[in-house]
Amino acid sequence: MSEAFLALWASTVRTIVPIIVGCVLGWFAGANIPLDTEFEGTLTALLTLLFTTAYYVAVRLFETYISPKLGWLLGYAKSPDSYTADSPAKHLAE
């Protein structure tokens, strides 16, 4: 596989995994809250957005400041700054 395809795959996986986690957590959080049916969808969408954002930011912070190995929590252990050969991170390592 080409390097460009692998970079695309990694970025796609690292985007979709937090969305799935946010959807599941949002659904679980809103499932037991009795609300009007009109407001229920809005609450689920809001909770999904909040959980997705919190999950992604937390994992990126852990990956950056604790250990790069924690990137697997986003579905792919490689961080975005190392996807391509021309990334600034690769030039700093040289």
Describe this structure in words.
This protein is an all-alpha fold and 94 residues long. The protein has one domain. It contains three helices and no strands. Helix 1 (3-31) crosses helix 2. The two termini are 25 Å apart. The relative contact order is 0.16.
Index terms:
mainly alpha, 0% strand, 3 helices, disordered C terminus, 94 residues, elongated
Quick structural summary:
The protein is mostly helical and 94 residues long.
Describe the SSE topology:
Blueprint: H1 3-31, H2 37-65, H3 88-93
The radius of gyration computed from the alpha-carbon positions, rounded to a whole number of angstroms, is 17 Å
Q: What pattern of helices and strands is seen along the backbone?
A: HHH
Total helices: the number is 3
Strand content: under 5%
Structural class: mainly alpha
State the shape: elongated
The overall number of domains is 1
Q: Low-confidence stretches at least 5 residues in length (pLDDT < 50)? A: 89-94
Alpha carbon gap, first and last residue: 25 Å
Helix content: 55-70%
